[in-house]
Amino acid sequence: MEEIFPFGRPVTGEHLVGRESLVEELISLVKNNQSAMLVAPRRYGKTSLLLEVMRRLKDEGWYVGNVDFFDIPTLDKLAEKIVKTTIENKFISADKIISAARKGIMALRESMEIKQVTQNGMEIILSFPEAEKDIDALLDECLDFPEHFAAKQKARMCFIYDELGDISKMNAALIKKMRSKFQMHKKTVYLFSGSQESVMRDIFVDKKGAFYGFCRVFELGAVPAEPFKHYIIRTFDRAHITISSDDADGILDQTQGHPYYTQYVCQTIYLNVKEKRNVETCDIKDGFEQALVSQQTYLDSLRASLKHDSILQLRLCAFLAKDEQRSVYSQFDDNRQNIYSALQSLIKKGMIRKTDNRYTLTDPFFKQYLRRIEL
Ligand SMILES: Nc1ncnc2c1ncn2[C@@H]1O[C@H](COP(=O)(O)OP(=O)(O)OP(=O)(O)O)[C@@H](O)[C@H]1O
Ligand SMILES: [Mg+2]
User: Fold this and answer.
1) pTM, to two decimals
2) Which residues line ligand 1 (CB under 6 A)?
3) What is the CATH number of domain 304-371?
4) C-alpha span between 197 and 90 (Å, rounded)
5) Phi and psi torsions of 284, nearest 5°
């Protein structure tokens, strides 16, 4: 499929719209040795932004590392990923070395590649295949490894822990361990991200949180309307398709500037109009509806997981999807405390947010989906 509006993978360069000032701010913080945390709901562009920061720092000679907790099923894998991403700064193929270590190839110690890894890196890698290894001790070493590596190579390192919230629920001790180590690091600056606002607040903003006072905290909102509109017009134009300014606004009205859904709706429209070469107002509605249908499985699963947690949470979302203006408390017979707790849980999950004393759903597609179903 020809994709002119990329979606479902991190975007860079011209496709990373409306984030330039934040990218620059993060880079300048990192250069001042200040770590930062980025919070935004799912698919708002956290990974894209962090990868862009990483790419630019790398161009300036920084070492970089990137671990996404979303892809990390076990602590073993975490340890391995930290080491891999770190040694790749020396253009060493970590996979090759680790798999040689797994096969027990002892000649590995003498190979040219591993000699560049540093002594402690080599010891860590050689310990990966051990069946009896002590994972806590291994993690102790791995969490410090980027710092040791950077110091040894006389480089500075920017290390990203993406989707940190995913691990914090399962392993509070690990989060504490990370803090106690990272605060001692002199060569490494950390960037974190998370999708669940209040989980991240518990870790970074709450006085009892493990990372309290460690980071500047940034909230990532929707992509601003003006640059997003110009991007849409420009990208269609490059494919020789015209779209009016009002129709580009119309798309953004529907998607609320949500980065992923906007790209997705635009790509759907593109496929529909590429023969006739212009976008009409009716194409926007059709594109949105079609995109909504194709997200059905994801939206069904969101609904099912909410229902599984609590039917009240699902009912509250459905209510907010239809009317975000009225007070929820007056509309439900449930006990006030239960309603309050359900709303707090929804905020914790990043499903809703509270602004100006109003609750709103963060996902514009889920909102439309809930408007159309009977509970
Ligand atoms: N600044 C942006 N401008 C335009 N589109 C963007 C931007 N940021 C993200 N996107 C779109 O959103 C999609 C998701 O981006 P990304 O994976 O960076 O988000 P995320 O917040 O890390 O998501 P997840 O919660 O799945 O980890 C991208 O594939 C792209 O289509
Ligand atoms: Mg991500």
Assistant:
1) 0.89
2) 6-11, 15-19, 40, 42-48, 195, 223, 259-260, 263
3) 1.10.10.10
4) 35
5) -70, -45
